[in-house]
Amino acid sequence: MAIVLASASPRRRELLAQIGCGFTVVTSDIIEDNTQDIPPEQLVILQAKIKAQSVAAVVDRHDIVIGADTIVVLDGQVYGKPKDTHDAKCMLFSLSGREHKVITGIAVVTRDILLTDYEVTTVKMAELTAEDIQRYVISGEPMDKAGAYAIQGKGAVFIERIDGCYSNVVGMPLRKLAKLLAKVGVSVP
């Protein structure tokens, strides 16, 4: 039995390594669809589950696969990863000076087990100037991040406060993940 992360995200790999979780990575070819007309909490669970199940189908039957999906929600609008620099700038202008929710769904899957959960964290972003946004987008950091910012990177300077789980904003709610892993007999750390 091995733990497999169904994600190409370097941040998720860093978070799992941080808690001493031994794992391998098998990326899923599932394309996220944030346009589905379902509540955001259900959306992230569905996408995490689909990613994990697609990888579980190709690894050993007893391997434990972890899938995750993170989105940002503001006024009912779902923000995933920006499509291009213009999209990143639009997202950051929308989030500027406002509170938003970061929601991550997680799935722990084997061929016989499916466990899911999600976490919601409220984040307050500072007022950003056009120059702040331009400089940040030019750095390239926003391009593969939900909501076009990285709280664990340069984007940290834009965050006034968070209410909830920090690791959730990075991309993996570690406490919730540990609880799901415990249900399948895996203790971390």
UniProtKB/TrEMBL annotation:
Its cofactor is a divalent metal cation. It holds the Pfam family Maf. GO terms for molecular function: nucleoside triphosphate diphosphatase activity. SUPFAM superfamilies: ITPase-like (SSF52972). Keywords: Hydrolase. This is Septum formation protein Maf. It comes from bioreactor metagenome.
